[in-house]
Specification:
Blueprint: E1 6-11, E2 14-19, H1 20-34, H2 39-42, H3 58-80, H4 91-98, H5 103-106, H6 108-115
Antiparallel strand pairs: 1-2
Length: about 150
């Protein structure tokens, strides 16, 4: 039984053999996450769509994947005042942010315009959220016996 045909491809500038079905599926899934699944959405790209053919090259990862995730995260933060956010480093920052209405409540028209700039589903994981806070469980608590990996 033959599952699929293998084709030559380039991954990280090295030639490899990949399954055609898997290649199509990966490319479609990545295009969806990047918001470039339709021909109309690809017409206004500021990057070369053929970069999807080599998903592990640095140019694709940094200049397309991460750039899209960062841009989307910035737009979500501006419009919705998201929690968690890399802009909020302490509980004081969170408290200050929550005192103000998000943009979509203050100015819905401007929010609608900004939301149009969101591409796909990618956002950067907010690694800097509460970075200035010690959120480890207190000594003597039952949570201290649970490995730290459970909380991260």
């Amino acid at each position: 039984m033959q599952v699929g045909t293998l084709k030559e491809a380039v991954f990280a500038k090295k030639k490899v053999m990949i399954g055609e079905v898997a290649r199509r599926f990966r490319k479609t899934l990545m295009a969806e996450h990047l918001g470039v699944l339709t021909k109309e959405s690809r017409d206004n790209l500021d990057w070369d769509y053929t970069l999807l053919d080599d998903p592990v090259c640095d140019e694709f990862y940094h200049n397309v994947w991460c750039k899209t995730a960062d841009m989307n995260m910035d737009l979500f933060d501006k419009v919705f005042s998201c929690l968690p956010s890399n802009e909020l480093h302490s509980f004081a920052d969170v408290k200050l942010m929550r005192q103000h209405d998000p943009l979509f409540i203050r100015d819905s028209e401007q929010a609608k315009q900004l939301v149009k700039g969101i591409r796909g589903h990618l956002v950067r994981y907010p690694e800097d959220f509460l970075r200035d806070e010690d959120i480890s469980p207190p000594q003597g608590s039952k949570e201290i016996v649970v490995p730290a990996i459970v909380w991260t």
